[in-house]
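Obj.: predict assembly geometry.
Materials: sequence records (below).
Method: joint structure prediction, all chains together.
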Amino acid sequence: MGIPRFWRETPSRYNLIGTKCGSCGMIHFPPRVICPSCHRKSIGKMERTHLSGKGTIVSYSIVHDAPHSFEMQKPYVVAIIELEGGCRLTAPIIDCSPSDVAIGMDVEATFRKLGEQGEDGVIHYGYKFRPAREATK
Amino acid sequence: MKVGIVSYGGYIPRWRIRPQDIASTWGTDGDAISRGLNIRSKSVPYPDEDVITISVEATRNLMKKVQIDPKDIGAIYVGSESHPYAVKPSATVVAEAIEASPNLTAADYEFACKAGTAAIQTCMGMVSSNMIRYGIAVGSDTSQGAPGDPLEYSASAGGAAFLIGMEDVIATINSTISYTTDTPDFWRREGQTYPKHGGRFTGQPAYFKHTLTCAQRLFEEADTKPGDYDYAVFHQPNGKFPVSAGRKLGFSMEQIETGLLVPEIGNTYSGAVLLGLANILDEADPGSRIFMIGYGSGAGSDGFDITVKDEIENIRTNNCPTIMEMVENANFIDYATYAKFRGKIRL
Amino acid sequence: MRDVAIIGVGDTKFGELWDLSFREIGIEAGLKAIEDSGITGQQIDALFVGNMSAGKFIEQEHVAPLVADYSGLSPRHIPTFRIESAGACGAAALACAHMSVASGIYNIVVVGGAEKMTDVGDTQAAEILSATADQEWESVFGATIASLFAMMARRHMHTYGTTREQLAAVAVKNHKNGSLNPIAQYRKEITPEMVLGAPPVAEPLGLFDCAPLSDGAATVVLCPLDMAKRFTDTPVKIAGYGQSSDTLALHDRRDICTMDATVIAAKKAFHTAKLAPEDIQLAEVHDNFTITELIAIEDLGFFKKGEGGPSTEDGRTALNSDISVNTSGGLKARGQPVGATGLAQVVEVVRQLRGECDKRQVDGAEIGLTHNIGGTGASAVVHILRRVN
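Observations (raw structure tokens):
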């Protein structure tokens, strides 16, 4: 994976920055230059916005056949998460046992290593999600 | 206005291993080691955690407690002896992850276990001289002990971050003082995976000499005595050294115990004394006075005389976990899992 | 626009073809199709090749002229096209070829699909396949292709009460059909217990819920329908075609239990064919995972949403039942050489409509459908094929 290809996505991967359509208010992640609902009306009106780091699990899978970069973490959970504000993304669920994960579970964003370009290469960081603190207390 | 702590945050990975589980792998007496070190368990980072992620989590916890604009942070220093990169700063990632970039200075520090306290001193100087409005000092480590080495029973992971400034200070730093010599008690050569140490040489001529001398100099500087303090916190490579040092200086167990986290989480190196301080700040009443001495091999000690202010109540929000909450969120793993998590098994 | 017919089909055996290179499988299927069609190489106007990732699997791009070249067509300098649409390459290539003939630009066109997947290791192959999902916002975050389909399965189970046993019934049926197909990668029947007891890949999906990695090629020859009888007595008409797309990332879909791309492609195909789902006797649907077939038979209109599982478990999609689904064994048992899949489906339906399928023959087969998707459903292509009497 190219260094610049990953580097240019760091604002969204570090800080969940998406866009809000200035026409209809719909939030998109990652940022888009055109709103799929408003088309031409939205051009130039897609504003940067911070997404909530809180959401709920829409669905999930426990991955056993892992890509190389996740080999040390298998089995691991990957989920589709619906964020507060109505936008969805895909992320691993960490800091819990796979058997504790459920559809509808509240989760919150955390900051972890996503991978690296080999032992001597650049390390990539970004969001993963964990059970929400309120949910675990 | 006096310089001090404006906010703070900590982070401890949730995984733990017991000395007994390490000892059973190496054929040693785990109970004896546990008693000898006064360590019941140590924290272990997940494979996707490193000094950068721990520093970011600790710093984000710090930011959650206050309403300051990250753009007002003029400096970020991350102190660690286990930075993921030998060349390429950890601090830039922290800066980006709290959106303090790009108009600030940032650098990584290394001074064995006291790089974090050195970073606090740097921020104090920069704030006091009006170079910056706020500075962030982080001490964080994912320290490594070679398989079978005595260090393996204590070397753990965690970190704490401190926001230093002169406005809305929650604890004033009345004075700070350092004591530094060239004493090679512990080191890691460039390119080596695991650190080496001088065995018993790490004790008397290293930890104790620097910690105790620095403490005496701080008493003189602050014109105080042990009885003037509610809390005392020392660098804690194990559960015995800080207690022994504290007792020698005339502190009681009651003064020492709040800052002593090593029995439950092990030695978090650059994070150790700072996580102890963070735990004290979580519970200290306004007006409390704290005596803190960090230590880093190589060797040196940084001492701090701190007074908690009424403003501490303003940052006691419930939107991030307390240090004790993180200490108690413990999930135990066996040695094989630990070896995998720590990259001791190579794929 | 002219009506278009399929006048010849050919394929290779599917599976781990250690002895054969990409070139060799491409040519084998091509020559068989040409022979089957009764045309000569001199009559070919153009070649379309469906291929997903030769660049990653065999480090060779520019495979369309390569196939023409090794088929001996280089002196003729025919135009060649490579079509990439992830798992839907084959059907998308057919769609492009179909349009070129229907429009009158070409008369006789060869459409091949091929993938050589076993020259790389399993983990690498899975990573190459994961590039058909959203690499930046799914794959980077640890989502494998299997895990994305597993998330559809889990949500389908949550919403409609679909069971693991119903998913297993898809694999059991397709293996049974595959056991009757000479080119299938797996010609062994399996039991529900074997599916349920298989090692997990991406829960709730296990090894037997997943189609294998395969080598293979399939080819068809097209010409205008009004010319077809010159070459063959058994032309098959492309009666309906629909193609559609959707968000690349699964999480951006309206509903992760429905592939809107399939729904829309099917509507278009039925509209052009002037047919309805109940007219379809047999269907080759995309079953890279067991859940994919359940979702497909719902989205194509064969069963109501949520009834794919019970219907399959009740045998309503078995050979010569309500609708014969995946008589070839599907991707699950026939194999899944990605670029070849869409055309292998067409080859199977053509053979069924010609009555050449022996023990797996659908009685009185006249109308069949193929359904080919790319990625997690960001592309979908539906063709309806009809015997010309």
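Conclusions so far: Chain B has two domains: 4-170+321-341, 173-312.
To do: check interface contacts against the pulldown list.
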